[in-house]
Amino acid sequence: MAKKLNMRKRYEVLTRGLGWEPTYQPKEKVFPQETYEGIKIVDWDKWEDPFRLTTDAYWKYQAEKDKKLYAVIDSFAQNNGHLNLSSASYVNALKIFIQGVSPLEYGAHRGYANLARQFSGEGAQLACQMQSIDELRHSQTQIHTLSHYNKHFTGLHDPFHMHDRVWYLSVPKSYFDDARSAGPFEFITSISFAFEYILTNLLFVPFMSGAAHNGDMATVTFGFSAQSDESRHMTLGLEIIKFLVEQHEDNLEIVQGWIDKHFWRAYRVLGLVSAMQDYMLPDSPMSWKEAWDIYFVDNCGALFKDLARYGLRMPKFHEQATDEAEHLSHQVYTALYQFSHAAAFHTEVPSKEKMDWLSEKYPNTFDKYYRPRWEMYAQMEKEGKRFFNMGLPQLCQVCQVPMSFTEVSKGEPMKLSQRVTEFNGDKYHTCSDGCKDIFDHEPEKYAHAWLPPHQIFQGNCGGAEIPDVLKYYHFNPEDGGDYKGSTDEATWKAAHGLDDQQTTPEKSA
Amino acid sequence: MTIKTNFGEYPVGNKDAVENFHGNQLVYIAWDDHLGIGPANVFPLPPEMPFAALLEEVIPSVVSPHPDFEKIDWVKAQWILDGESIVPELGKSLTENGVGHKSLLRFKTPGLTGYQGSGN
Predict the structure, then answer these.
(1) Which of A258, A233, A230 is nearest to A245 (CA)?
(2) Which of B7, B10, B41 to probe the A interface (max A CBs under 10 A)?
(3) What's the average model confidence in pLDDT over A112-122?
(4) Do A183 and B6 touch (CB under 8 A)?
(5) Residue A445 lies in a domain
């Protein structure tokens, strides 16, 4: 019987020496995307997989995790776990998650599959292949977990179709499309480093602890099931940055440019998360501002101190992102509130308790700028005129978020922030210095942006009237609008035997 | 900077060229100090439309629910077109007033600064 190899030897045998020097075709034709971005790789063997994970071990771990997860999902369904939520309004956060985030997981699956094909280094091929499979698994486990909610609540029935068409979902979609339509090194810098390393904690930690706070044990379980993968992805993100910068001095400037760009792109996507976290969770474990301070200001501040020895610095415009931390969720959620008649989730004026929580978490901004806004909306609602903006919003040409952001960094938080660039005789509007900088760097690319309101006016979205467009989105009439009076609310009240005045069941001791 | 490509020149394109809007042009309109109404709205409008129609139809279609709307004195309104102050001639067309495709038109209503003066 052959002698058993030790771990390190096994890893080497199972990951390296799998490639070969091509002879029928020149190498640059076999790996056609590897050089055009200007990145120079001198020695792919310097690539270190920080986990030394082999394929056989990978399958074993993932199978164990799936087994546990699906046991929880089954028992959640059998016990009608959705009835133990804090409120059915919590499900609106899940709607944004499955419409906005799960399709990104699938997009990442495709992106990493492409990297596994395009990188010529075997270690990198293998790491990308595993991440590709992880991402597919995440998208599947999220769909399976949330399919239980789809039986009881609205807006969850066709998230992938929606993702490709709907105005607020073009925010995450356009970011991933931007990365996926770039070269392989830009893609990996964008998704592995800017998104997964720098910002993913801001998405997953508050979202998963939010799920726990609101009684959603199914989501907590898929979160945990993905967590060990996520930490592997984060480590990959850091590894790739160091590898690129160490390979050749010319790589530094290119990589820094990508970090700048994709930090801002990913940050703008997280605007949706901030709204979810501060407003859509009935019981929020921490505010966006608190999460930003911990996960970005402290953690990333320390990270970039460490990366300084590689010549890397903090991403451009990070100061503006920090300035905005006390405004972001309020600005994004009020945009969602106004246009939720054309959305597949519900919004509502925050309860008195929620407003007090927001005052406490945002002492410098909420009472001064945003409480009056909610009081105005509440007044309009009381008069039977719940405010919906019956026009279409101006979107940023780059991030595609409705242009509700303001000049916070200039000390004018109640003045809309609007930037414009002339390119080939036309105007292109952006929401911030960060997005304008990205546009100005590659205007040819962003001139192609598929902006949903403009597409509606061009006649490409099913028709000219809102019901036509909603049909094209595969929305049902009960999917949008205010939470009060929604089908979801009625379902919830019926299941808990609540009358019209009550919104939450009595807490049992 | 131009974009790096793998195969030849990056294709020139403009998804929102004015020709794509069936004779209309896009105009963005925002009401300063009224952020409760939200971001600027985008409207597809005929270039030959008189400026007065903005006041009479287009703007009210979105902002009329706002409590300040009824108090607007359009004679006093101040207009900022693509960053420059203008005094529009109401009877003349958008084009004659300098409003082009994807122009951003902001207006201020002196004395009206949103719900309880909060800028909302």
Answers:
(1) A258
(2) B41
(3) 94
(4) yes
(5) no
